[in-house]
Amino acid sequence: MSEQRKAWTTYIVLRLLFFVVPFAALYALALALGFTMMLAGITAAVLAALIGVSLSILLLSKPREEASESIYAWRNRDRTADDVAEDAVLDSETDGR
Fold first, then answer.
1. Which of 10, 16, 44, 66 would give a disulfide with 27, using CB separation of 3.0 to 4.6 Å?
2. Which residues span the domain enclosing 11?
């Protein structure tokens, strides 16, 4: 597996786990506390999203950086010197407005 694919796979799987595990636990807890299924789902989803984002920010800086670098490498894989010069001209024109 390529290094770029590995970085993306790791990042996506961990992000999903950081949401799914808290969601399942919170959903079960809410149902045990007598919440309706709809309210339990909404409450669990909101809290799981907050937990997932927090864990992602705290624990996934390296995989996020690797995924970001793979995007950059993919976007610039076939760029020629002419493409770079053309982009510079277009950027300078839009900055001057």
1. 44
2. 3-95
Count of the separate structural domains present in the chain: 1
- What is the phi/psi pair of residue 22, to 5°? -65, -35
Task: Grade residue 30 by pLDDT with cuts at 50, 70 and 90.
Answer: very high
Count, residues in the chain: 97
DSSP state of 77: T
The model's pTM is: 0.69
Give the separation between CA 22 and CA 50, rounded to whole angstroms.
Answer: 10
Q: Find tokens 């996506």 and name the residue.
A: 12
